[in-house]
Design a protein that fits this description.
By secondary structure, the protein is mainly alpha-helical. The protein has 2 domains: about 5-20 and about 135-215, Helix-hairpin-Helix base-excision DNA repair enzymes (C-terminal) (Endonuclease Iii, domain 2, Orthogonal Bundle), CATH 1.10.1670; about 30-130, Hypothetical protein, domain 2 (Endonuclease III, domain 1, Orthogonal Bundle). It contains 12 helices and no strands. The chain has helices spanning about 5-15, 30-40, 45-60, 60-65, 70-75, 85-100, 110, 120-130, 140-150, 160-170, 175-185, 205-215. α5 (about 70-75) crosses α6 and α9 (about 140-150) crosses α11 (about 175-185). The longest helix has 19 residues, at about 85-100. It is elongated, with a radius of gyration of 20 Å. About 35% of the residues are buried. Mean pLDDT is about 95; it is low at about 215-220.
Length: about 220
Amino acid sequence: MTKKERFAYVISYFEQHAPNAETELIYDNPYQLLVAVILSAQCTDKRVNMTTPAIFDQYPDVYSLSKATFDDLFPLVRSISYPNNKTKHLIGMANMVVDDFGGEIPSTVPELVKLPGVGRKTANVITSVVHHQPNMAVDTHVFRVSARLGLTTNATTPLQTEMQLLKYIPKEKVHVAHHWLILHGRYICLARSPKCEECGLRPVCKYYQSIIRGNQLSLPKY
């Protein structure tokens, strides 16, 4: 099977089984999504969704957040991983958005990565989710699933994974493909115990064919 054929199979499968895949972060506008994504680094979406309502209640927009003090915001962020850094990042982000972008959340990756706490992955998420731009955010799930399926080859960094995926995924599908791979990694293609028997992508999955099925075929017969 060629790389192009494998991508076509995977895309067709997800279009049938998860046509409306979307982020599990709860948000109402770009400001809320940016806050949530910054908080989600090395933290579960479930925990972030439990934390953000209190933040948005006290700081409903970027202007109010820009006026927050560390001591006021930290208690609301305390339950999130790396709360000290993330508290500082949120305040710094809000101040830069107000001072440099007129209070509007930037809509391009080069602008977004200038903000404290915003790397390429976060910027890709914002532009992909809010504006449906063909930007592929690569987190641990996307990295793992892409390699196991054989969508990527010898990709050792998130950027290499991103570039290989963008080469074969049609631009108009990139924004939803991001969620396909994340959710598949979150619920089926788990890091330690992938649920291969439940996975409809087994026919094209290099991991299943070489590791799981290979082990089964090599078992001794008695």
